[in-house]
Amino acid sequence: MTIRPSSSVPATGSYRSMGDAVTLLTRAFQLERGLLRMLGGWMPGVPYWDAKLAMGDHLWAHAQYGSRLLKRLHELKENTAERQECQAVDELLRGLGAAPDGTDFLCGFYGTAMSRLSGIYTAWAAQIDPVMDPFSGAILVEATNELRGQAEWYAAYQPAYSPGALVRNKAWSDRLAGLFDAIDLPAGQWRSDRPAPAIEEAFTCVPTPQRDASFQTARVNEINRRTDDSFEGKRLAIFYNHTQEMQFAESLGAILYETPEMPWAFHYDMARHCVDEIRHTRMGCTRFEQLGQKLHDFPMLLQNYSLRAKLDPMERFCMMTLVIEASSFEKKRAGVKMFQEKGDEISARYESYDIRDEMQHVNFGHTWVPIMLRVAQDARSVTELVQYCQDILADALKNERKGVAGY
C-alpha cells in the first residue's frame, strides 16, 4: 500500500465522512460475499472444464477481498457489518445468478458484473479520505484490479475442450447492465427514476454437474477396468482420480451457495477447501499430461456429485470431510511410499501436498459440522451424523459394484 505525501493530497471537502466510507465498505463486503457464493453455486452448472478451474481461482480471490474488507470494518468498529444485508444488493445478486444456463452466467458475471463493479470500486476508492483512511482505499483499488483482471480473462476466453466458440449473450449482458444502472449501491436502494426491476427467482444448484460436450461422461468409475495392476497402471488410476476431484470442488461450491445462514468464517473456509480441490484437479490434469495421457480419452465422472447433491449441505459436508477425506490417509500414504520406492519424485511430491490439504479439510469438518448441527437445530450428535453418512456411502458403493447407475 502506498500512502501519498500530504503535499499531493488536494484540500477538498469531497471525501466521504467516516460513516459514509463504512457504508461503502459494507456494501463491498456484501457484494464480495455474494459473488463468492454465486461462483460456487454456478460452478457445477458451467460446462467448460477450463472455466471451472478459473472460477475456483476467482472464487478464492473474492474470499480474500471479503476477508480484508471485513477486517477493516472491524478496525473501524463496525462489528455488525457481517450481518448487515441490504435488500437491493441481495436482489442485484439474485438477478446475476438467474442466468438461463452456465454459458450465460459466465457472460453476465464476467462480461457485465466484473466490468461494472471494477468501475464502481474505482469511484468509491477515490471518495475515501487518503490521509485518514488509506487502508480502505487501498483494499478497493486492489479489488478493482482483481475484478478488471477477471473481466479481461473472460473477454479473451475460448473453451479449450469444446468443439465450438463460446457464445456471448448480448441480450443477457444488457439485461444485467440495466440492473446495475437501476441501483444506487451506496444508498442501498433502486433508483426512483428507473423502472422497478423484476425480482428474479433464486438460482438453484444443478443436480448433475455439466461437462464440455466433447467429453464422454460416466456415472460409474471404470478406471480399474481400463488399467492393469502394474506400477504404471496404479499411477495412472491415482492421477485420473485426481482429475475427477472437480466433483468435490463442485459439491463444496454448492455448499457455499446453499448456506446463507452460516457465518463468514465458514464461507471463507469453504472457499479455501474448494480452491484446494480445484488445485488437486489441476494437479491431476497436469500429471496426466506429463504421463502422455489425454484427458479426452477417459470419461468424466458425475456420480459422486449427484449422490451428494441429494443430501442437505450439512450432511454433504459431513460425508465429504469426516467420512471420505478422513478415511483416505492410509491409501494416500501407501501411494506416496510406492512413488518414492519407484523414484517418482514428482508423483510423490504431489501426493504429499494432497495429504496435508486433506488433513486441513478434516479439521474443517471437526470445526464446522458441530456448528452446522446447532445452526440447523438438529438433535443428532456428530457421531450419529457420521454414521448416517457412512451408511449412505456404503449403499452407494454397493450399488456401484452391482453396476447400478444413477444412485
What does this structure look like?
There is one protein chain. The chain folds into 2 domains: 16-190, Ferritin (Up-down Bundle); 217-401, Ferritin, core subunit, four-helix bundle (Ferritin). It has 15 helices and 4 strands. The chain has helices at 18-42, 49-75, 87-97, 102-126, 134-156, 170-182, 223-226, 231-243, 246-258, 264-290, 303-309, 313-325, 329-341, 345-375, 382-401, and strands spanning 183-184, 189-190, 217-218, 300-301. β1 (183-184) and β2 form a beta hairpin. α1 (18-42) packs antiparallel against α2 (49-75). The longest helix is centred in the C-terminal third of the chain and has 31 residues, at 345-375. The N and C termini lie far apart (52 Å). The model is unreliable at 402-407 (pLDDT under 50).
Quick tags:
single chain, 407 residues, mainly alpha, Ferritin, two-stranded parallel ribbon, 15 helices
Q: How many β-strand runs?
A: 4
Query: What's the pLDDT, averaged over the residues?
Result: 91
Number of continuous helical runs: 15
Q: Classify the secondary structure makeup into a structural class.
A: mainly alpha
Percent of sequence in beta strands: under 5%
What name does the CATH topology of the largest domain carry? Ferritin
List low-pLDDT spans. 402-407
Count of domain modules: 2
Outline of this structure?
The N and C termini lie far apart (about 50 Å). The protein is globular, with a radius of gyration of 23 Å.
SSE map:
Elements: H1 18-42, H2 49-75, H3 87-97, H4 102-126, H5 134-156, H6 170-182, E1 183-184, E2 189-190, E3 217-218, H7 223-226, H8 231-243, H9 246-258, H10 264-290, E4 300-301, H11 303-309, H12 313-325, H13 329-341, H14 345-375, H15 382-401
Parallel strand pairs: 3-4
Antiparallel strand pairs: 1-2
Helix pairs in contact: 1-2, 1-3, 1-4, 1-9, 1-10, 2-5, 2-10, 4-5, 4-6, 8-10, 9-10, 9-11, 9-12, 10-14, 12-14, 12-15, 13-14
